[in-house]
Amino acid sequence: MGDNKKTILVVDDERTIVDMLVYNLQKEGYNTLEAGDGETAVSVALDKKPDLVLLDIMLPKMDGLAVCKRIRQYLNIPILMLSAKDEEIDKILGLELGADDYITKPFSVRELMARVKANLRKAEITAKAMDTGIKEKEETNLLIVGDLSLDLNKFEVKVRGETIDLTLREFEVIRYLAAQPGQVVTRETLLEKVWGYEYYGDIRTVDVTVRRIREKIEKDTSTPKILITKRGVGYYIASREIAL
After folding, report:
1. Which positions ≥6 away from 127 have C-beta within 8 Å?
2. Pick the residue with more confidence: 121 or 52?
3. DSSP label at 162?
4. Would you give the DSSP letter of residue 150?
5. Which residues on adjacent β-strands are paired with residue 7?
6. 51-108 residue pLDDT tens
7. Angle between helices 168-178 and 109-135 (to 10 degrees)
8. Is the peptide bond before 106 cis (omega within 30 degrees of 0)?
9. CA separation for the pair 201, 205 (Å, rounded)
């Protein structure tokens, strides 16, 4: 684009929503790209490589969930889903899709801009951390808690020696909790520290992400031994594996 502005791809088939989002994003200093259907969205995303995608679920030609999955195969950029209130959060934030977060319609412009800013900031911080990890790859930077082992340079998690395939957001949740084993962290704190939301955000996003992590790292998700819930408070990583 020839400048340092971040570029946002807006994908929605409702012209009034696109116009409103584009106007407000540009007012905040972002460059914008547009797509009115799923196929165009994939094409534009892969060709132009935006910094973030605002993606509606209900789209012609290819729905937003399929678009998200396709983009995620090639680009590691934040994807913020725009959903109707009755959409299944689990599906939107599904592991197999890789969406970073969602926001329900109708939404306030202020909230949406806060989410965009937070996701871009987190992506930038993560990119720098990964770059540093590559430069310092000779140094091992391991975090080990019980049967959980995190390689902070490679962004890799192992449970009992087996490598677990986590999304970047899931890794960040595990890393934050594992850095303070046994200490209960509230959902609100996770939302702030991992998602970068100081005020806006749905704590159900945290719950869904934790559930997805458990599906990968726990032997039995009904009785988790590694990532534990403190009812009514939040989550913590057990300081050591609890014997079965």
Report:
1. none
2. 52
3. E
4. E
5. 31
6. 999 999 989 999 988 999 899 888 888 899 888 866 777 766 665 677 888 888 888 8
7. 80
8. yes
9. 8
User: Is the pLDDT reported for residue 49 higher than 70?
Assistant: yes
Better-scored residue on pLDDT, 20 or 156: 20
Q: How many CB atoms are closer than 10 A to CB 204?
A: 13
Dig out the tokens for 19 from the structure. Answer: 């116009």
Q: How confident is the model at residue 36 (pLDDT cuts 50, 70, 90)?
A: very high
CA atoms within 13 A on the CB side of 104: 10
Are 138 and 150 spatial neighbours (Cβ–Cβ below 8 Å)? Answer: no
The pTM for the full model equals 0.72
Give the mean pLDDT of 104-119: 88
Among all chains, which residue has been given the structure tokens 């934040």?
A: 78
Single out the residue of 59, 118, 52, 46 nearest to residue 79, CA to CA.
52
- Nearest-angstrom CA–CA distance, 41 and 62: 9
Q: Once rounded to an integer, what is the mean pLDDT over residues 17-39?
A: 95
> What CA–CA distances, in Å, run from 128 to 37, 53, 77, 124?
33, 20, 14, 6
Number of residues that this document lists for the chain:
244
How far is 241 from 130, CA to CA, in rounded Å?
29
| 59 CB-contact burial (10 Å; exposed 0-12 / middle 13-18 / buried 19+) | buried
Q: Judging by DSSP bridges, how do beta strands 185-186 and 234-237 pair with one another?
A: antiparallel
CA 102/CA 140 separation, integer angstroms = 35
